[in-house]
Protein: Fe2OG dioxygenase domain-containing protein
Organism: Thioclava pacifica DSM 10166
Amino acid sequence: MVRDRLRSVYKEGQIGLQEGSPEEDCEKMTEIPEDATARPAPQEIRGFLHYPGWLDVAEQQALLADLREVVARAPLFSPMTPYGKPMSVRMTSAGRFGWVSDRRGYRYSETHPDGCPWPEIPSSILAIWNAVSGTTRAPECCLINFYGEGAKMGMHQDRDEDDFDQPVVSISLGDDGLFRIGNATRGGKTESLWLRSGDVMVMGGAARLLYHGIDRIKPGTCPLMPKGGRINLTLRVVT
């Protein structure tokens, strides 16, 4: 299993998101094989397409290395809701736009809170979008959320974008996260599944505006990052 291979590759805990963490040398993956048989088939849940274990160990390691470069240029920051409540995740972005939240509201911005433009989206991440999104448009934002122990994300819709016909692609790295899928309006019955390191999810079509969130993470379930935690990447077309 991917989890067991990760433990053998990272048995000494070489990989960490933090700058300066000791790491193994690795070749960055810039292309995803086009052969569909080399990748798991999607499992549908309420219209969301879940690709379990889409990324293998080497690809997860390479993706994490790319993310370190992004975070070095656009550091993680702690957002707050428009009501002044701190969010439990830390975040940053890559691409033309980044998603931010503060007392001025939820929105996309062309600059990091420190005033600098966002870094480009790494080609390794764009390759995943190209393989699963089913659209010819390129993503304009890669939102990077880091979940430490105790972090969660309440039920919400992704509706700050201009074109809801464009999907949102989610990539999971690190510890398991309990993902909940709801309905087009708040309330009603929901379904949940554990998203694991290397999983990819496509939210599009009629499911594009379903409420969804992360109830909790399960610490210690993946050795990808020595200090633990979960990273979620969401790729979006903004304009």
Observations:
- The two ends are 39 Å apart (CA to CA).
- The longest strand covers residues 141-147.
- The longest helix spans residues 57-73.
